[in-house]
Amino acid sequence: MATATRIPIEQYLKSSYEPDAEFVRGQIEGRSGGEYDHNLVQWAILDWFRRHDKEWQTPSIQEQRTRLNSDTVRIPDVSVWARTVAIEPVFSHPQLIVVEVLSPEDRHSKVQEKVEDCRRFQVPHIWVIDPLQRMGWDCSNGNWMRASRFAVEGSAIHLDLEQLFRELDAAEA
């Protein structure tokens, strides 16, 4: 059984990994991804938000390091912030929305751990998308609630999975 090596967060933050790795409770953790379906859906979700960033006053980016606390840095697939959050090399303020795109090798327990970390960090909207089954879950309250349309209450901000996949299919035809 392999043993994990603990390193200081300062060392992690000064290091680069290919692909980038998360820093979870003092240990480096590799991330899933890199497969076509995962990357295509991640790009489509980012494109969805980027097309609306100005209208919704929300900067969005993929795979942005976010320091949740003194020993954990997560890298969500897509992050959407309120315009009032200052841009930082490593973000230290909660996103408005975190979107995780599942890869075939993702285990539910590991994704649930990420969801709980984001909830403790006070991210109000946590959405998980399965690109192969073309379904999603709103995990904002800790439960996995099946959804095909996600929305930020009291705003125009939303993600419609049916429309997203229609647009992807049209682009791939």
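(the above was protein one; protein two follows)
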Amino acid sequence: MKNLFLAPLLFMFMVNIFLPPLKAQMSGEVVYKRTWVEDDKFYFDTLRFNGPELLYIEKRQKRQWRTPEGYIIYIPYANRSRYIHQHSMEYIDQRYNDKKKQYELKTGEAPKYEWTLDNEYKTIGNYKVQKATASVTFVEGDTGTVIAWFTTDIPVSGGPYFTWGLPGLIIEMTIKNHIKGTYTMESITMKPVDTLKPKEGVWVQSGTGKDKGKLRDLLNKDGN
């Protein structure tokens, strides 16, 4: 009887030794600081992550100022969140319609990044980072060249301005063809996060005529 009792314990001990530990799904949030030419002109965005899910949150008031060269820089008001599931490629854009005083939800195709990894490294804070570049057309139709510095020390495939697809978190990033400025990681917190997929709002969809109305009614059915 004693040997029969010890057998299951011995089996569990052997399993723990020879089976690799399960990799925990990383979750938390990153705060990015967007700095312009002048150091005192900046705002913050937030990236939340949970495994393959990303939610990039932009909330700021509009601002305007004139640079020493005489250029006027205008930052529009923003109350927007963009979501992607990097496995299923589900994409949701949630924006607040200030005229209608409600959030609006829209599906679509997320921007794709064809990254080129450069054999160039440096250190930012406590992280060794590698350079990567990509040409991209954003959801709004703008085009530019993204220059990102990412670290594989944090295996989160995300970054500022809703960038994604690298084998590590983007710590610093600039976009050519945009006004000079840099996104830098201000802080990162590893913690459980709530459901990332946006649900609050009314579904809207591009289209015309009856098809547009039918699709909108379908999306809004039962309060979804």
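Reviewer note on protein two: Confidence is low (pLDDT under 50) at residues 4-23, 207-224.
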